[in-house]
Design brief:
The protein is α/β, with parallel strands linked by helices and about 290 residues long. It has 12 helices and 8 strands. Helix 8 packs antiparallel against helix 9.
């Protein structure tokens, strides 16, 4: 349960943890569970091999984890191959329909601390209805304002590509429906990008990339002493996300054009990418992170 096999899955888990969704509420969540009150919820839309909901159930004490999977075959295999009984709730249904039903329940609104979207059709595409404004609005209704995060693994490509256009449309819609959107690179899997939308709270200014890096450093400190222990691969991603933008992108920015990233001395790109930088299709987020601080 401590192992997530793919780098994009590890990045999604680390991002949710780094941005506070999976640990800031844990003492409160444990107290709520002890007192019989409702526990904060994590929703995973798309089960896959089940590693993400299994990891959340293992590492996030007092948090109720529910996975939603369209394929009954995938769900059946998970029940056979994973721990028995499953340490999370597994629902076989369409993700959009399941979230709409949850959002209609007043007790479920603003309860989720994290919604993880990792769902694809038989052609490897995120279904259109799981990228729609209506679906994202249901996500916003379920997420706790000011704290809950939507984390999505999507395809990524250079400016002008179909993948970039699809990512941009999703990012804009999530920014409008849920809250401030950032991207986190997936090391070694440049075709993947983890997008995170932080649920807006009335009257509260959105967190900047610099503030998120500081929050990630707090998360990293906590993760290093966590029990059960974090896998080294996850700690390494947390370390990367926690790198201060002023250092991670040093030397890059407006002057980092063609050839600026070549050679052994090239600066590492900033780990947290602003929405504006995502839409432009550039590779460096340092200037945006510093400007937003």
């Amino acid at each position: 349960p401590s192992v997530i096999g793919f780098e994009y899955g590890r990045t999604a888990a680390a991002t949710a943890y780094a941005f506070g969704a999976l640990w800031r509420e844990q003492p409160l969540a444990t107290a709520r569970a002890r007192d019989g009150a409702r526990a904060p919820r994590v929703l995973c839309v798309g089960l896959g091999a089940g590693s993400l909901p299994l990891w959340c159930a293992h590492h996030c004490a007092g948090v109720a984890v529910r996975a939603i999977e369209l394929s009954s075959l995938v769900a059946s295999v998970a029940r056979e191959q994973l721990r028995n009984p499953l340490p999370f709730e597994l629902i076989v249904d369409d993700g959009a329909r399941a979230l709409a039903q949850l959002a209609a329940d007043e007790d479920e609104r603003a309860r989720a601390v994290c919604i993880a979207l990792d769902a694809y059709d038989s052609h490897g595409r995120v279904p259109a209805h799981l990228q729609s404004r209506a679906f994202l609005e249901r996500c916003a209704e379920l997420l706790e304002p000011g704290r809950g995060v939507l984390v999505a693994n999507i395809w990524h490509g250079p400016a002008g590509s179909a993948e970039h256009a699809q990512m941009s449309a999703f990012a804009r819609a999530a920014d409008a429906a849920v809250g401030r959107v950032y991207g986190v690179r997936v090391a070694g899997q440049e075709a993947n990008l983890v997008l995170v939308a932080i649920r807006a709270a009335p009257g509260v200014a959105p967190l900047t990339a610099v503030a998120l890096s500081a929050m990630a450093r707090d998360a990293l400190t906590r993760a290093r002493v966590a029990r059960p222990p974090f896998a080294p691969e996850l700690l390494a991603i947390l370390q990367r996300i926690a790198s201060p933008p002023s250092k991670a992108g040093a030397g890059a920015g407006a002057g980092a054009g063609a050839g600026a990233g070549a050679g052994a001395d090239a600066a590492e790109p900033a780990p947290i990418i602003s929405l504006e930088q995502l839409l432009r299709g550039g590779d460096d987020a340092h200037a945006d992170a510093v400007a937003s601080a």
